[in-house]
Predict the structure.
Amino acid sequence: MEREQFMQWKRAAHELMREIAAPADEAGLEMARLLRIAGKLYEAAGDEQLHDVGLSEPRFGLLFWLLVEERLGNTAGISPTFLSRHQSVSKNTVSALLRGLEEQGLIERAIDPDDKRAFRIRLSEAGRELVREVAPTHLTCLSQLASGLTPEERAQLLALLGKLVRSLAGKRMRSCADHRALGAHLIGL
């Protein structure tokens, strides 16, 4: 019954879009909907896989980012603001995530020597070990989520998503300052 209701809703939504917008505009809404659903499904699957080690997908993302920063030679740590920008979450969200990771003993927070009002975040030894232990299985899990696609389709999807992100980051989105800020921080995609 739920599927039937959804299909009925979808038909009604498409009819409404045809009445009030150009046919090409319909694709934008459908892409936004499907991208949102795919993102939520990926995050839910990641959360489920990480649950046994006391992590969520966003917390793992922060730990992984910190490990990459270490590999690049940044052993002094990075600011919560930097993490917020590059993980595409609000400062409040990153603060809550970092608080949880600190309570788990997975990160260390130290006062910034250049600005005594700010903090630098770095991995603790326990955090470093956990990322190295969990990452292989977790990354395999995320890859397997797309196992219904051929290798060629996955490569094409990655290329198209990258192109979409670059396009969105390059647009002047006057209606949403957050999108402009996000676009400014998606270097290298």
Remarks:
- The first strand starts at residue 107 and ends at 112.
- The beta strands are 107-112, 115-123.
- Confidence is low (pLDDT under 50) at residues 174-189.
